[in-house]
């Protein structure tokens, strides 16, 4: 089905205030749809195997995961460091924001992450974060040998990965926010013997720096805003022979509370968010998410990811409660993973 934008705009021009209102919403959405191929044609080249340290592309916090990862525009605290560092500048009501999260990933892999952000007033907002991996049960190394089995065991492999990041963001105007991040990434995959005669082995480890940058812009129409981010920009990492880069990701997105058009909804909000993604190692994707809040205490969320082999529908909930000036937050998400076990995430945090 083809979208005839010229016909749509002609119809909108025939109305007055309604047409102007709808154009401000529909035209950016059409632009977003034009820059992303949501369903690539059959036979389109999928750029597989072009990046390493893929845990950097996993949704870590429960709130964005429940919304299908459509979070580049609405990140507004410490969790922004994993999507769009400009979101740190959205911290206006509180001086500190902190959270810790755990993701029970597929194949008994789990990710633990946390972040801390501080609002410095007119100087901007700074933050630090980390991600740690747990690859589950012990992995026994082997190598070829002249035995009945054809191999011998070399012991338990020492494998793992982590990142540590530092971020800064600032509101340059009351409509435009800018943020950047530098992070150190490390991965080690055990040792292997390369010369039995010389008893020489090599440690399979890599480390280096990655960079993120992002912006958020409010054009001035109700709560509507759009944003962009570039994540995991890096030089090449290399083990012995094969070189690779981090999972570079370009994102643009938009979001708005669609209840802005209704009166008498002070206790309710429904945030709709849409992200378009251009990853280094796959064709274009789209993330769509929704979040309903009642009285800023209870949230219900859902989301969907397009053009993934296994990921798709997700949902979850969130709770906020103020105790002596400390705004406590608990979030949970559930994500379908196709032939794999479904993924659960839980995040605990607070603002003060």
How would you describe this protein?
- The protein has 352 residues and is mainly beta.
- It has two domains: 1-35, no CATH class; 47-351, Porin (Beta Barrel), CATH 2.40.160.60.
- 9% of the residues lie in helices and 50% in strands.
- The chain contains three helices and 18 strands.
- The protein has helices spanning 5-13, 17-35, 62-66; strands at 96-104, 110-119, 125-134, 140-144, 151-156, 159-171, 176-195, 200-217, 225-234, 237-238, 243-244, 249-257, 268-279, 285-294, 298-306, 313-323, 326-335, 343-351.
- A hairpin with a 5-residue loop joins strand 13 (268-279) and strand 14.
- The longest helix has 19 residues, at 17-35.
- The termini are far apart.
- Mean pLDDT is 86; it is low at 14-19 and 35-43.
Name its key features.
single chain, 14-stranded antiparallel β-barrel, 352 residues, mainly beta, two-stranded antiparallel sheet, Porin
What's the short story on this structure?
The chain has 352 residues and is mostly beta strands.
Please give the structural blueprint.
Blueprint: H1 5-13, H2 17-35, H3 62-66, E1 96-104, E2 110-119, E3 125-134, E4 140-144, E5 151-156, E6 159-171, E7 176-195, E8 200-217, E9 225-234, E10 237-238, E11 243-244, E12 249-257, E13 268-279, E14 285-294, E15 298-306, E16 313-323, E17 326-335, E18 343-351
Antiparallel strand pairs: 1-2, 1-18, 2-3, 3-6, 4-5, 6-7, 7-8, 8-9, 9-12, 10-11, 12-13, 13-14, 14-15, 15-16, 16-17, 17-18
Helix pairs in contact: 1-2
